[in-house]
Specification:
With about 250 residues, the protein is of the alpha+beta class. It contains 3 helices and 16 strands. Strands 9-8-7-6-5-4-14-13-12-11-10 form an 11-stranded antiparallel sheet, with no helix packed on it. A 3-stranded mixed sheet has the order 1-3-2, with no helix packed on it. It has a two-stranded antiparallel ribbon with strand order 15-16.
């Protein structure tokens, strides 16, 4: 009799353990998937795919996913920074263009000094673009387009440049550390003319902070951007040469 009781107790314990194990796995199988996609903590190399942390899933950046990841980034509404363009080999023969850029609530002001010393000013906002040179009072005005906010053809790429790439042209993508920033790195395959493009998008600000173009393995073009000043300074000027104020920065 004693032996029979002992067998019953052992059997009950085994049943309880089995139920507990099934419950644990069952919750994982039948509970709805509530994980969200977030960017990983900036690091010097690519982040492992599918790694869970606190119920959130860190998605690996690959040529197939990088544009979707970049689309999740949100850029600041107001900031200022300096952008430098270097033609290391090309028409300008190592010419450098330096631009001071202010952005606030959908308006962009750019003062760009070209290699020869000419200063080009532009203001983009409210569906319009205004352009003038040096200290001239003559202002060109026309409807703006998607490229207007980036120096109206002055070869300053933006993160839309990366989003506009043919997905089949993206050869590499990963997370990289650049000058203390956690960045999403994108590299294109070599095109028919022997050019390769590289881009670094800050995963905090969502802004393109560096871009390069290589020809036959040599860097021929480089764009770099300084650290952001957030928000844009209150004295940022969105004013035309005749004194017309197009926009006022509010903080």
């Amino acid at each position: 009799m004693e032996r029979r009781k002992r067998n019953i107790v052992v059997t009950l314990i085994a049943v309880i353990i089995a139920v507990a194990i099934l419950s644990s796995f069952g919750l994982g199988i039948f509970a709805p998937d509530t994980a969200k996609i977030v960017l990983p903590t900036p690091g010097p190399s690519s982040s492992p795919g599918g790694e869970e942390n606190g119920g959130l899933v860190r998605v690996e950046v690959t040529p197939q996913t990088v544009q979707s990841v970049i689309e999740t980034l949100k850029r600041p509404e107001s900031y200022g920074r300096t952008v430098t363009i270097q033609d290391i080999w090309g028409e300008n023969e190592q010419g450098t263009t330096q631009a001071r850029v202010w952005v606030d609530s959908g308006w962009t002001r750019t003062d760009a000094t070209w290699p020869g010393g000419t200063v080009r000013h532009s203001i983009v906002g409210d569906g319009q673009v205004w352009i003038w040179y040096d200290n001239s009072q003559d202002v060109l005005n026309s409807p703006s387009d998607n490229a207007s906010a980036d120096l109206e053809g002055q070869r300053i790429p933006s993160y839309e440049t990366v989003l506009g790439l043919d997905p089949d042209s993206i050869a590499a993508a990963e997370y990289q550390a650049l000058d203390g920033l956690g960045c999403i790195y994108v590299e294109t395959a070599e095109d028919d003319s022997g050019h390769v493009a590289r881009y670094w998008v800050d995963d905090d600000s969502g802004l393109l902070v560096r871009a390069e173009q290589l020809k036959d393995g040599q860097v021929v073009y480089r764009m770099t951007a300084s650290a952001l000043e957030r928000p844009a300074p209150s004295d940022s000027s969105f004013t035309l040469p005749d004194g017309t104020v197009l926009h006022t920065v509010t903080q």
